[in-house]
Amino acid sequence: MLFDLPDPATLYRALLDRDEGYDGRAYVCVATTGIFCRMTCPARKPRPENCTFVSTIGECIEAGFRPCKRCHPLQPAASADPMIGTLLDALDARPERRWSEEHLERMGFDLSTVRRAFKRQFGMTFLEMARHRRLREGFETLAEGGRVIEAQQQAGFESPSAFRAAFARLVECAPAEISGHGTLLTDWIRTPLGDMIAISSASHLHLLEFVERKALSTEIGRLRQRAKGDLGIGTYAPTEQIRAELDAFFAGTSAEFRTALALDGSAFTRAVWAELRRIPPGVTVSYSEIARRIGQPAAIRAVARANGANQLALIIPCHRVIGADGSLTGYGGGLWRKQRLLEIEQQFRRTSAA
């Protein structure tokens, strides 16, 4: 089960002890290096505030982390299943290939068997793993001012069309259309819970989302349309401010976000968001309670929709809303992140109580 893992302090002690009982049951994502490791990794141990523990390799990859070259976290699955080992070797040999189902069929593999095996071992399909591996490199090259051709090569795409197609799936436009300056600027922010994309104007933050959120491309496309296509890569002051505030949040020094926000929604939606921002860190409430607080107790489903429409993760803390039965319910950034955010915020609650 997703939440069978013990608390972070117990897991960190297991990491220090290289406890074999957790090998394959938990993985550590290290914010300062951008890699993920097995719990038995012999490498020098990171500080606890830089560690995030998850239960599947897929969660590590989706959050933007790369496998460690010392403990080889993918190796046990490869050894247990020759098919997985063969495909991982093929991916290492041809990381630039735009892998498709046709490639797998040509290699003699049954598509459903491959899909089940990778989902079981890694929590994601082989094709999803290949796509995540390439695209981040290209985006970061563009963010650093590199040309599109450099980003394409850095991401390992043989052809400009393949890179454009993969890039467009993420941000709803071709890389050439988003490079350079614009009314809105897009930047990549690394956090201990994975990479996030921030979009700001010169005065306000418009979007802050984890990169694998399924609705991200739609949200970016909508912002780009409102900006009449004037969306670039770079940073404005609101992005730099939220970057610093996120650093303070994950370091445990502040849960306060003061960055100016561009809130685009109906009066009802904005009322829900305002109420969400009144929930103290470490506290959870139900959808029905939010509906009651805004004076519309029957509008529980509308509250849930407004919650899901939030595109300013953490700042508008929709992760603090749970089901009436106490279940975590859905979260666009992944339930494991919701659980971890609530755990992180407990320290702020304890500080406030003291």
From TrEMBL:
Claim: DNA-binding is one of the keywords in the record: no
InterPro entries hit by this protein: Ada-like_dom_sf (IPR035451), Ada_DNA_repair_Zn-bd (IPR004026), Bifunct_regulatory_prot_Ada (IPR016221), HTH_AraC (IPR018060), MethylDNA_cys_MeTrfase_AS (IPR001497), MethylDNA_cys_MeTrfase_DNA-bd (IPR014048), MethylDNA_cys_MeTrfase_DNAb (IPR036217), MGMT_N_sf (IPR036631)
Entry-linked CDD domains: ATase
Domain HTH araC/xylS-type as annotated: residue spans: 105-181
Active site, UniProt feature: 37 (nucleophile), 318 (nucleophile)
Catalysed reactions, semicolon-separated: a 4-O-methyl-thymidine in DNA + L-cysteinyl-[protein] = a thymidine in DNA + S-methyl-L-cysteinyl-[protein]; a 6-O-methyl-2'-deoxyguanosine in DNA + L-cysteinyl-[protein] = S-methyl-L-cysteinyl-[protein] + a 2'-deoxyguanosine in DNA
Cofactor binding: number and manner: Binds 1 zinc ion per subunit.
Record's keyword annotation contains DNA damage: yes
Cofactor: Zn(2+)
A GO molecular function held by the record: DNA-binding transcription factor activity
GO terms under biological process: DNA repair; methylation
Assigned EC number: 2.1.1.63
Alphabetical keyword list: Activator, DNA damage, DNA repair, Metal-binding, Methyltransferase, Transferase, Zinc
Gene3D superfamilies per UniProt: DNA Methylphosphotriester Repair Domain, Homeodomain-like, Methylated DNA-protein cysteine methyltransferase domain, Winged helix-like DNA-binding domain superfamily/Winged helix DNA-binding domain
Protein's UniProt name: methylated-DNA--[protein]-cysteine S-methyltransferase
Lineage of source species: Bacteria, Pseudomonadati, Pseudomonadota, Alphaproteobacteria, Hyphomicrobiales
